[in-house]
Amino acid sequence: MESTGTPSAASPESTLRAILTIPVIVASLGYFVDIYDLILFSIVRISSLKSIGIQGQELLDQGVFLLNMQMGGMLLGGILWGVLGDKKGRVKILFGSIFLYSIANIANGCINSIGGYAVWRFIAGVGLAGELGAGVTLVLENLPKSSRGYGTMIVASVGVSGAILANVIANHFDWRMAYFIGGGLGLVLLLMRIGVFESGMYKEIEDSNISKGDFFSLFTKRVHFFKYAKSILIGLPIWFAVGILITFSPEFGKALGVTGPVSAGEAVMFCYLGLVFGDFASGFLSQYFRSRKKVLLLFQVLTVLAISVYFMHREVSPAVFYAHCVAIGFAVGYWAIFITIAAEQFGTNLRATVASTVPNFIRGMVIPITFSFQFAKEHLGIIQGAAVVGVICLVIAFYALYHLEETFHKDLNYIEE
């Protein structure tokens, strides 16, 4: 039986050993490569598009198109891998998804047209969609409830630092080589995963007649639908910040009168540096206060403040602008809690489906967010347009969080009817 004592009852060394299991290490490294590949496009967007003949306003418009293709692939892939994760097992998905996105990123380094770029970003998106959900599900089902938040904290903190490596690689190598390196890292990780064992909770129901991975039940059953929708919507501010404010930071830098050129790669790196510390802090605080919702609320408030400062400061130096990117990254660094809450809302026979689709549905929300941003930009300008879209995202996220169940103490060994 699991101990009900507080984390302080055990020594730090024994607690660390209990958390740093093979599933946690494997999921952390997998998410590290996932984030490297996911964010690389934002870093090399301008250089890669210019090399195939795209110039001027098309750099923004075609960049939005390619980002939407990537996110659309993740939306589809989240459903595919999530359902397979509940029907066939979590470990199989870890192998299949990383193989697909590794091959796709190598192919991305060979493209010479927007059409080819779009196809391979879509395929890479499909592959990338399976990594986080399967990894988090495996971690949650292998750790006791008193420490599973630490497990997802480590996965998220290690994972988002992959964006920092992506920027370092992009600064030292051609954009094509950066894609080749990402694909190569994925294939190396694939070999490291040999010998990873399946979740014990899943093995208990693997050969049973229990319905597993019923994606449509998330929409046809009222109680499932509202839990699922709210789990997705609390993440809207994360991808507004990353998908709009950071990805298109060169354009925002000009509009805000930043006194020097702003590099998208630098903005991404500094944002994800903030995310590393934000994910660590939010995960740690959720364990310390033994509450997911209270800490998530705190970070949503920090997000309001960070985005407000981003829009209010004008004619600052690039260094100050990048400091704002760090602050935004820290504030939206509740990704670990976001995924943990979503996965903890549902039983073993639906958990991988939810854990894979929720992060990818919120990533897919970049599509309506960017369309809304483009529409608002045409009528209000880039700053006011982005501000309006940001306010809408934040209001929806606050509402969704208010109505979500607290899951810190929840026993996950159960089945959804």
Structure notes:
It is built from 20 helices and no strands. It has one domain: MFS general substrate transporter like domains (Growth Hormone, Chain: A, Up-down Bundle). With 417 residues, the chain is mainly α.
Kindly summarize this structure in a few lines.
This protein is mainly α and 417 residues long. It contains 20 helices and no strands. Helix content is 77%, strand content 0%.
List keywords for this structure.
disordered N terminus, Growth Hormone, Chain: A, mainly alpha, globular, 417 residues, 20 helices
In sequence order, what are the helices and strands, one letter per element?
HHHHHHHHHHHHHHHHHHHH
**Poorly predicted regions:** 1-9
Straight-line distance between termini? 25 Å
| Helix content, binned percent | over 70%
CATH class category name: Mainly Alpha
According to CATH, what is the topology? Growth Hormone, Chain: A
* Mean pLDDT across every amino acid position: 87
Strand content: under 5%
Cα-atom radius of gyration? 20 Å
**Which second-level CATH architecture applies?**
Up-down Bundle
The CATH superfamily title: MFS general substrate transporter like domains
- Helix count equals 20
The main pleated sheet reads as:
none
How many beta-strand segments? 0
> How does the overall form come out from the CA principal axes?
globular
Tally of individual domains: 1
